[in-house]
Write a structure and sequence with these properties.
Layout: E1 2-6, H1 12-27, E2 31-33, H2 35-38, H3 47-59, E3 63-67, H4 75-86, E4 91-94, H5 112-117, E5 120-122, H6 125-135
């Protein structure tokens, strides 16, 4: 199963989390595409190039896993979620942040548009793996 791993990657903490999570998904047999590995330093200064690289990478994937931490979902991650949703690519959210930041009612964890776009919002890597196995039933795992 090929996974596009979405989420902010601007701080050391974010990049460290993503690298660890990517390794966990790979240990479970997923092939993981992470923008932190795709964008070269010269591409990092071209918004159009970043969008093209990321969108083409998502199209080639079976699912998107999106980090939803923060008071608001990162704007680039929100765009990736919307793009994947429009392309019919299933999205699994992971929120390790314990804050409730929602306009989706009592049970909401994030903005209603994000919550309505994802298959599920998980609270741990183990939960994400379980959901991926459910939506990836019949797909070849590496």
């Amino acid at each position: 199963m090929k996974i596009y791993q979405a989420g902010p990657l601007f701080s050391d903490a974010e990049r460290t989390w993503h690298k660890s999570f990517k390794a966990r998904l790979e240990a479970e047999g997923c092939e993981v595409v992470w923008p932190g590995d795709l964008i070269s330093p010269e591409d990092a200064f071209s918004a159009t190039k970043i969008m093209e690289i990321d969108s083409q990478a998502m199209i080639a994937c079976d699912a998107v896993v999106a980090l939803l931490d923060g008071a608001q979902v990162d704007d680039g991650t929100a765009w990736e979620i919307g793009f994947a949703y429009a392309k019919g690519i299933p999205i699994v959210g992971i929120r390790t942040d314990f804050r409730i930041c929602s306009d989706s009612g009592e049970d909401g964890l994030v903005n209603a548009m994000i919550q309505g776009s994802v298959v599920d919002i998980c609270r741990s890597a183990d939960e994400v793996i379980g959901v991926l196995r459910t939506i990836g039933h019949g797909l070849q795992w590496v």
